[in-house]
Amino acid sequence: MMIEYLLTATIVVLLPGTGVLYTLAFGLARGWRASVLAALGCTLGIVPHIVASIVGLAALLHTSALAFQVVKYLGVAYLFYMAWGILRDGGTLQVTAERTSVSAFRIIRNGLLLNILNPKLSLFFLAFLPQFVPVGTTSPTIFMLGLATVFMALTFVVFVGYGGFAAATRRHVISKPAVMRWLKRGFAGAFGALGLKLALSDA
Questions:
Q1: Which of 43, 95, 110, 197 is 20 to 30 A from residue 123's alpha carbon, by CA?
Q2: pTM of this prediction?
Q3: Is 33 exposed, middle or buried (0-12, 13-18, 19+ CB in 10 A)?
């Protein structure tokens, strides 16, 4: 059961999403250290959703249309804000030869908000974690907390890997202005598309 969980969780984490994009963008824009901070922020952003799914608050988002819509549109607004931040000159995720200073707190905070403001994560964990709790487990809550901890560790390791890859290619990217322009548009478009996808989702 644990091997099956590890394989499934790894596949889920590897799939490109807002966290992966955010970490990749910071790896390119600010280097490896910034990408690690971005990965940490995105990983910490999972915590509220895990807690919500385990204590049952995620069920409220599922049953209350208003609660889900409020959190959803906050998430949509934030994704569009991130897209604009990439496009505008001098934005946080600007890829340039000079690594302008961005505080660790800001990098972690933005990654945290990216995941916190995605209500679908709570519903995902609500549906995902119980599938791997063996029948007859005496403490299912503790067992799910263990599964969640493993999921967070996988998330951090995979995201750091993505960020490290982006940081390693940084020198090649900044030497080609045309590539930089397309990457900038690509990252902004990806965040915008994810925001639009979330806006159009029903659940």
A1: 110
A2: 0.77
A3: middle
